[in-house]
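Lecture notes, part 5. Sequence design as translation. It can be helpful to think of inverse folding as translation between two languages: the language of shapes and the language of residues. The source text, in structure tokens, appears below.
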């Protein structure tokens, strides 16, 4: 890290930790909870396929990809705010 004070390093870590926790909770929802309730959603059809299939198989994968980009954007913003971002060159 650069010449950050102890308070700024602590705040940077606190915000990074909180961001990670939030994203792990979102990951848990799409990795476990959606699949847990997928069978009850199969009673509803979406273009001839069970809705649980779209939520569990397709929706979870799409959510994970979007979550990667969102996490990267948010973490980069935190790093820039505290002056510890990597060079873009």
């Amino acid at each position: 890290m650069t010449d950050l004070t102890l308070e700024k390093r602590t705040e940077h870590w606190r915000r990074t930790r909180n961001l990670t926790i939030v994203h792990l909770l979102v990951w848990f929802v799409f990795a476990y909870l959606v699949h847990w309730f997928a069978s009850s959603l199969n009673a509803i059809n979406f273009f001839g396929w069970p809705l649980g299939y779209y939520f569990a198989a397709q929706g979870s994968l799409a959510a994970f990809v979007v979550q990667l980009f969102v996490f990267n954007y948010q973490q980069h913003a935190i790093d820039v705010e505290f002056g510890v971002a990597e060079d873009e060159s």
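The translated text above is only one of many valid answers, since several sequences can fold into similar shapes. The beta strands are 45-46, 49-50.
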